[in-house]
Amino acid sequence: MERIVLHLDIDYFFAQVEENEHPEYKGKPVVVCVYSGRDETSGVVSTSNYEARKYGVKSGMPIKIAIAHLKGTGAVFLPVDHELYSRISQGVMEIVSTYGEKFEYASIDEGVIEISEAAHRSYGEAKEIAEKIKKEILGKFHLTCSIGIGPNRLVAKIASDFRKPNGLTVVKPDEVGAFLEKMDVDKIPGIGKKSRDFLATMGIHVVGQLRDADPALLGEAFGKKTAGWLINSAKGIDETEVGIAWEQKQVSRIMTLKNDTRDLDGIMNSMKPLVQEIADEIREMEISFSSVGATLIDENMKTFTKSRTLAHPTGDANEITKIAKMLFAEIISETKMNFRRAGIKIEKLEKRKGQKTLGEF
Ligand code: TTP
Ligand code: MG
Ligand code: MG
């Protein structure tokens, strides 16, 4: 079955948040820094706004070099405020997660959702969903982001990076080949500087060349498994599912109800297969959770979300049903409309049995 996947990446995330916090910085180069504390200007650039990037400032660059690039521009240098960014990140991803069937928190400023069903397998509808998401994030958080839509996670991610800032790029299945062909090979996530340089020695610079490369030669150079992955990626093939990656901080499922309703038992009945899917993932990933959330979206597409933190982490799926029911009841009691979509999520995930928590990865 063909899928439609949407990848969202917030534009110059930390710096954009700082611009919102300090409107007086707008228009100036803004550089967010990780200070090492050795002396006043030692450390590296975390990120910068687009004004600063015009002067060649980049993530990972020593702060001293950024200062030199920006001399005389009135640039602002700030320390990172992780707590603030992570709070805003969660708010944004909460919005994103309600628009598709499966959601994955891919990084602090990236979310992936599968929208095959939400978009009725139509790329036109998928694009409308993307526009709505952008509008909601701009309205609620004053942040712009860039979105890519494609038949899988790989293509969607590359597409999200294609036009930045405030981009929206849709790549339909029959456009994948032409879309990737002329890109430098390091546009493929996972191909870093080392692989890129090595491929260059084989005369492979762009994705089309990688796609058409001799599998045997690539196998000799990279090993069979990596070679297979390289060629598949160059063809734009990626079978990985949304919502089962390691780094995710929540597992969520959402669906459209058969009829618009505010009947609690009816909603809970519809939730059974979703809870089952979440329970399967809990088992597969050997995780426990300590927060459960419920989302209802009414006839006017207004979203209501509530969540509850447990006293102790658990892996028990019955807890999900119990708490979700309570949360749905609360939302219903505080509203008057019927609901069109309903969803459940678990958060604050940890590996079970004394294994590392997800946060440590
Ligand atoms: P990115 O999405 O890579 O970058 P960005 O959001 O700043 O810019 P854009 O997406 O518009 O190109 O990273 C997200 C955040 O992660 C970024 O705002 C700061 C942080 N970060 C670092 O701290 N160090 C790094 O080297 C990178 C790449 C990002
Ligand atoms: Mg970003
Ligand atoms: Mg990012």
Q: What gross morphology would you assign?
A: globular
Beta fraction: 15-25%
Instruction: Give helix and strand order, one letter per element, not per position.
Output: EHEEHHEHEEHEHEHHHHHEHEEHEE
| Classification by helices and strands | alpha+beta
Termini separation: 32 Å
Count of DSSP E strands?
Answer: 13
Write down the oligomeric state.
Answer: single chain
Low-confidence stretches: 354-361
Total number of helical segments? Answer: 13
Largest sheet: 10 strands, mixed
- Please estimate the helix content: 25-40%
CA-atom Rg in angstroms = 22 Å
Averaging pLDDT over every residue, what do you get?
92
Present as ligands are: thymidine-5'-triphosphate, magnesium ion
Describe, in short, the structure shown.
The protein is α+β, with helices and mostly antiparallel strands and 361 residues long.
Explain what the structure shows.
With about 350 residues, the protein is α+β, with helices and mostly antiparallel strands. The chain contains 13 helices and 13 strands. It has helices at about 15-20, 50-55, 65-70, 80-95, 125-140, 155-160, 175-180, 195-200, 205-210, 215-220, 225-235, 265-285, 315-335; strands at about 5-10, 30-35, 45-50, 75-80, 100-105, 110-115, 145-150, 170, 250-260, 285-300, 305-315, 340-345, 350. Strands 1, 5, 6, 7, 8, 9, 10, 11, 12 and 13 form a ten-stranded mixed beta sheet that branches. Helix 4 (about 80-95) packs antiparallel against helix 5 (about 125-140), helix 10 (about 215-220) packs across helix 11 and helix 12 runs antiparallel to helix 13. It is globular, with a radius of gyration of 22 Å. Residues about 355-360 have low confidence and may be disordered.
